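Bench notes, afternoon.
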Amino acid sequence: MLRLLLSLTSQFLFIALLEDEKCLKSSQKVGFRRHSENFFPLLKQILAKTNCSLKNIKEVYFTSLPGSQVGYRISLSFVLVLQVLNPQIKCYHLNSLLFQAGKKKAISLISIDQRKTKYHFAVYQTSKYLIEPKIIDLNTYQKQELDQMRKKFSDYFIYKDFYQTSDQGSTDFSPKKIRFLINFRQMLPYFQLLSK
């Protein structure tokens, strides 16, 4: 079965094709604010290199984030058009905060604005939220609230904009980029079917 995986809800544009469990081709690129220009050419390139077509795809998995982000709108528009063209296709989505945290104990943050003062925020433990997703504004009292959360969950990983910014007990604070393909494979069972 051919699956299309895509994530456009961050600075990264990620697309992959899986046939059963084998990755035929994947691409992870930085292109913040360029997803609308880059998505379709990259998808076309991946389909060409794998000798696949859109009609061969049986399932689509995409990350979603509430709000009016361009990446989310592109993903949703693409999936809905694909469902019109092929009503048999199944489409699945997962909140990007959970996708970013994976199965770890983690504080998950995804910025909303360029100045990085507002974030989507949640705390997860083994794929279940301990603190429900919400928006925090660091220009308000919520900065102290975030600092308190970091202290309360000091043994948790911190993921910010698809980078792991701290490691449990580590003194190495250099950010590590999320590996999208690994997270997709790990989180596939948690994606939810998009109702028609």
